[in-house]
Amino acid sequence: MEKDSNLASPQDDGAGEKLVDEKNGHNSKGIEVKYLTPSSQNGDAKIDIENLKSIQFAGMGKEELMKFASDPFWVRTRWFLFILFWLSWAAMLAGAIAIIILAPKCAPPAPRQWWEQSPLYKANVATFTKDPSKLQGDLKGFTTKLEYLSSLGVKTVVLSNILKVSDKESDGVDEFKTVAPSFGTLEDLKALISAAKDKGLKLLLTLIPNHSSLKNDLFNKSASKDPLYESFYIWAPGKGFTSEGMPAPPNNWLSKSGNSAWEWNEARKEFYLHQFDKEEPEFNFRNPKVVKFFDDVMQFWLDLGFSGFYLERTKYLIEDVELRNETAKRDIGSATHTEYDFYDHFYTENNADLEPLLHDWTERLANSSGILVVDDLSVTANRSLAHLIVRPQTLEPYPIFSAEDMFTLINKSLKANPWPAWQIKVKNEEEGSPLAQCVLLSSMLLPGVPVTLAGQELGLSNLQEIPWDNTTYPESQESDVISQQNNPHSLYTAYKELVEARNSPQILHGSLQLHIFNGTSVFAYTRIKSGNPGYLVVFNTGTEETTVDVRQMNGVPDELTLVVTSDIASMDDKSKLMSEAVTLPSRAVAVFRFVPKAKE
């Protein structure tokens, strides 16, 4: 049996004294000695020397520590390390900031051009400021109404044709660089342009380059075969004689009125082309001199201060060079060969040679910070041909107007052009009707440029004179400008609110989701851009009140804020509504703002 002991045996020969401290059983080197009693009885003893015990570190005393603390070497070392620490910290902070600032970011969307933001507001100078005391409006009167346009929020205004004509019922121009005296003088126009610029308005001039009047000096020179102007217009010899012995037209082309598009000129002994009135002979745009003439005309008006042009009758500018006969349509309906709608007009409309002409004009205007807008062109939606192509989109309800009609028309238009001009009309529906007003409001926040005819924002049905007050126009019955400006629920107020909303990032750059609620007549769409409030437009196209849960649409939360309605008495502007049950009367539109719900 083992037994531990720290005491020396009396029989030791003194060796233990050298190894063990008699007082505490340890030697000076901290070696522990164990005496082991042997199992045998032969008198031997066994000694086990343990490892050195750990010696505890006591550290420096205060005096020693102070001596090192005041040592110049250690003082310098501490300061060096202290400064190095803060310099390193500052360098890391600066590096982090530099990384944040200089790191590549997602490219922001290209800013929209000025003409892409505002609606295109078309105003007829003759009727815009007309009142019972005068026959027609003029440039001075138009200048007095610029404040109205500015307060409405529109930025792009198209002036109707104000060039000199001899027949007010015709748009054939006598002089392309002269203002019609009935509208005022060139000085009046300069004053209008200057005042418009002061209010941040851009003016476009309506120009009809397809034809002139018979009284235009260019036509007279061409008819007399002046060498410089001989081929300025479309001329062709007759093709035989009629049964009455008169020269027969060169082909079967018809004017829009249904009569022959050719008129005999006795002085020249040839026919000239007119696809409209016979008083409106057509220019020959295959002649470079004609193109150069209109280049000069455009530059003249640009230099005066216009920001571009709205070209009308554009698709008729160039005809088939061989003057081939038109062919009949496959489905002619009840039309006969003496009617315009009987033919396809492949040789007189949308000729492929229009493309280089329009491309050059668009480029020329872009270089002058101007824009080119053309009407009813169907060759392509390519923006290189024009900044905007205004081709009214017509809804043809069958059997009745539906949400599907709106969805299909908008989807088709956006596939052809991601930023189109919107001028949606319902066939056989009078302008200013409740349905027409709903269509107008529902199109205001779509990607693209809404086209507004002066008076539509007031719900006018005939788009004639603007009733500025109910004193001058007592029959206006609260549809006059002053009454609507003072009515927070008027169409004018709703239109103005949506024009302002068009300047927001979610309308200019946001995503679009079109939606039809199953089993209903309700069409809707949202405009959403990260970091901005979303917009929801809901249009009940049906004839009965309908309730829908708009949460079916992506990003729509439980609560909505009403922005405007098409005069829905049960809804108050800026009120909060629950999105699970939005109720709309028949033929009504409501526009909401909301905080987009995060994607789950």
From TrEMBL:
<dbReference type="GO" id="GO:0005975">
    <property type="term" value="P:carbohydrate metabolic process"/>
</dbReference>
<dbReference type="InterPro" id="IPR031984">
    <property type="entry name" value="SLC3A2_N"/>
</dbReference>
<feature type="region of interest" description="Disordered">
    <location>
        <begin position="1"/>
        <end position="33"/>
    </location>
</feature>
<dbReference type="GO" id="GO:0015823">
    <property type="term" value="P:phenylalanine transport"/>
</dbReference>
<dbReference type="InterPro" id="IPR013780">
    <property type="entry name" value="Glyco_hydro_b"/>
</dbReference>
<dbReference type="Pfam" id="PF00128">
    <property type="entry name" value="Alpha-amylase"/>
</dbReference>
<dbReference type="GO" id="GO:1904273">
    <property type="term" value="P:L-alanine import across plasma membrane"/>
</dbReference>
<protein>
    <recommendedName>
        <fullName>alpha-glucosidase</fullName>
        <ecNumber>3.2.1.20</ecNumber>
    </recommendedName>
</protein>
<dbReference type="GO" id="GO:0015190">
    <property type="term" value="F:L-leucine transmembrane transporter activity"/>
</dbReference>
<dbReference type="GO" id="GO:1903801">
    <property type="term" value="P:L-leucine import across plasma membrane"/>
</dbReference>
<dbReference type="GO" id="GO:0004558">
    <property type="term" value="F:alpha-1,4-glucosidase activity"/>
</dbReference>
<dbReference type="InterPro" id="IPR006047">
    <property type="entry name" value="GH13_cat_dom"/>
</dbReference>
<dbReference type="InterPro" id="IPR017853">
    <property type="entry name" value="GH"/>
</dbReference>
<feature type="transmembrane region" description="Helical">
    <location>
        <begin position="79"/>
        <end position="103"/>
    </location>
</feature>
<keyword id="KW-0812">Transmembrane</keyword>
<keyword id="KW-1133">Transmembrane helix</keyword>
<dbReference type="GO" id="GO:0015173">
    <property type="term" value="F:aromatic amino acid transmembrane transporter activity"/>
</dbReference>
<dbReference type="GO" id="GO:0016324">
    <property type="term" value="C:apical plasma membrane"/>
</dbReference>
<dbReference type="GO" id="GO:0015180">
    <property type="term" value="F:L-alanine transmembrane transporter activity"/>
</dbReference>
<dbReference type="Pfam" id="PF16028">
    <property type="entry name" value="SLC3A2_N"/>
</dbReference>
<feature type="domain" description="Glycosyl hydrolase family 13 catalytic">
    <location>
        <begin position="126"/>
        <end position="502"/>
    </location>
</feature>
<keyword id="KW-0472">Membrane</keyword>
<dbReference type="InterPro" id="IPR045857">
    <property type="entry name" value="O16G_dom_2"/>
</dbReference>
<feature type="compositionally biased region" description="Basic and acidic residues">
    <location>
        <begin position="15"/>
        <end position="32"/>
    </location>
</feature>
<dbReference type="InterPro" id="IPR042280">
    <property type="entry name" value="SLC3A2"/>
</dbReference>
<dbReference type="GO" id="GO:0016323">
    <property type="term" value="C:basolateral plasma membrane"/>
</dbReference>
